[in-house]
């Protein structure tokens, strides 16, 4: 295989922060690089990550097997496009590590669900990256970035029609709602702009709130993904009360008092963190938080 994948890259300088990444995070960065530049160079990436070129080639083969890249003569092409790349708006730049950890943990909670709604927002888009793909799984989403991520993977992806919000690339309005009402979901996985025991799930706009609200009503289970900055926050549009949530996945920055209040409502709370050595979460109960709260150290 040529050292150049898809062409010659201009990025050759070593970046110390890229060294020492666990394989899943390294592949995530490679995927973002392809989406951003439409080209990657094996030798340059090996130097940047401080690994062998063979390791980078294995990463590329793994990404191809997962449906993110397609091998071509002398290289590969991306299944993502720059216009629909996750992290295309400013909100995606906030708390990126926490969102990845939350998304990775949430992907393990899907179980045998075969019809899944994936909501709007950058954390839900991150979840789409880590969702385990199976041919008998159907994902319905209002998010065009999420549909772009999943559309070429080995599962069935359905994107709602309707008007598209420019900043978030989300389908909203009567057409989107009408399409959504046709489905029953085993699980709805949604992000949120705010979550509190007092006001429940809240959103920034009525259009997005309506999509989330309908999806929750159509789902057997509801999993909410929210980094700590969203907890204890109430935005102006109410999506639903907190007691509709089966599981909340958040991170260690979440306010303990709010976690306690949410736990008392009966939901399962998972606080996703990372092990320094492996990047994997280690789950253990936290006796200091009442309710059904599991912490990850």
Explain this structure.
By secondary structure, the chain is an alpha/beta fold. It folds into two domains: 4-80, Orthogonal Bundle (Arc Repressor Mutant, subunit A); 90-296, 3-Layer(aba) Sandwich (Rossmann fold), CATH 3.40.50.1360. It has nine helices and 18 strands. It has a nine-stranded mixed sheet, sandwiched between helices. Helix 5 links the parallel strand 5 (115-118) and strand 6 (138-141). The protein is globular. The termini are far apart.
CATH architecture of the largest domain: 3-Layer(aba) Sandwich
Ends apart, CA distance between termini:
40 Å
Shape: globular
In the CATH hierarchy, the third-tier topology of the largest domain is known as Rossmann fold
- Mean pLDDT reading: 78
SSE order: EHEHHEEHEHEHEEEHEEEHEEEHEEE
Number of helices: 9
Largest sheet: 9 strands, mixed
Summarize this, please?
The protein has helices spanning 23-37, 42-49, 53-65, 96-107, 122-130, 144-150, 174-180, 206-217, 256-263; strands at residues 4-5, 40-41, 69-72, 75-78, 115-118, 138-141, 156-159, 163-165, 170-172, 185-191, 194-196, 200-203, 219-225, 237-240, 247-250, 268-271, 283-285, 292-296. The chain is α/β, with parallel strands linked by helices. The longest helix has 15 residues, at 23-37.
Describe this protein with a few key phrases:
disordered N terminus; alpha/beta; 18 strands; disordered C terminus; Rossmann fold; 297 residues; 24% strand; Arc Repressor Mutant, subunit A; 3-stranded antiparallel β-sheet; 9 helices; 2 domains
């Amino acid at each position: 295989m040529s050292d150049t994948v898809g062409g010659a890259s201009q990025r050759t300088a070593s970046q110390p922060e890229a060294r020492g990444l666990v394989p899943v995070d390294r592949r995530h960065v490679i995927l973002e690089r392809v989406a951003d530049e439409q080209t990657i160079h094996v030798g340059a990436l090996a130097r940047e990550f401080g690994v062998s070129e063979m390791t980078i080639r294995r990463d590329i083969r793994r990404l191809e097997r997962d449906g993110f890249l397609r091998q071509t003569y002398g290289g590969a092409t991306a299944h993502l496009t720059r216009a629909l790349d996750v992290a295309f708006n400013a909100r995606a730049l906030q708390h990126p590590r926490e969102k990845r950890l939350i998304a990775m943990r949430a992907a393990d909670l899907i179980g045998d669900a075969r019809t899944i709604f994936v909501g709007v927002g950058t954390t839900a888009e991150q979840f789409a990256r880590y969702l385990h793909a199976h041919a008998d799984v159907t994902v319905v989403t209002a998010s065009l970035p999420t549909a772009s991520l999943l559309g070429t993977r080995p599962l069935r992806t359905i994107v709602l029609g309707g008007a598209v919000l420019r900043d978030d690339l989300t389908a909203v309005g009567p057409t989107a709602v009408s399409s959504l009402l046709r489905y029953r979901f085993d699980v709805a996985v949604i992000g949120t702009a705010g979550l509190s025991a007092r006001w429940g799930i809240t959103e920034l706009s009525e259009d997005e709130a309506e999509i989330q609200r309908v999806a929750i009503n159509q789902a057997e289970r509801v999993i909410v993904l929210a980094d700590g900055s969203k907890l204890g926050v109430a935005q102006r549009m109410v999506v639903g009360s907190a007691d509709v949530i089966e599981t909340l996945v958040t991170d260690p920055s979440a306010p303990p008092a709010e976690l306690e209040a949410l736990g008392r409502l009966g939901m399962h709370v998972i606080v996703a963190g990372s092990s320094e050595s492996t990047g994997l979460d280690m789950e253990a109960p936290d006796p200091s938080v009442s309710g059904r709260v599991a912490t990850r150290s």
